[in-house]
Amino acid sequence: MDVLAAYGGLFLVAFAAATILPAQSEAALAGLLATGSFSPAMLVLVASIGNILGSTVNWGLGRGVERFRDRPWFPLRPATLNRATAWYRRYGRWSLLLSWMPIVGDPLTVVAGVLREPLWSFVAIVALAKVSRYLVVAGAVLGLM
User: Fold this and answer.
1) What is the pLDDT of residues 25-75, one digit of tens each?
2) Residue 90 to residue 45: CA distance in whole angstroms
3) CB count, 10 Å around CB of 90?
4) 74, 68 in Cβ contact below 8 A?
5) 12 CB contacts (<8 Å, ≥6 apart)?
6) pTM over 0.85
């Protein structure tokens, strides 16, 4: 497999997985790690950067799309967005530590934009959550855990 294609594909899958698009970045990372053909550190770095950037796109969308939340084409169901908003209001920016979780993580990153979380704290907390998740996946695949 071409090295650039592997890293580029992982980046794209991780980016898409952080948005509302359905994608499994953990499976892609695990598969590439299992081949033993790529640097585990580089794979974790590439997946993390892609996923953090995808979440940042959600944050940006949240900054401007709140007024469209009741439209039929809006990508998040109102109930999902309301649940994420309640979590965010209750726990504040620290709820972003759950940004790695399926189902709730992506809406939380949108809500962070809606509720005007500063970009610097958003990126710092989301990076901590996302990098930690990929380190756990890598550790499990490589038998370190």
Assistant:
1) 999 999 999 999 999 999 999 999 999 999 999 999 888 876 776 777 776
2) 31
3) 8
4) yes
5) 50
6) yes
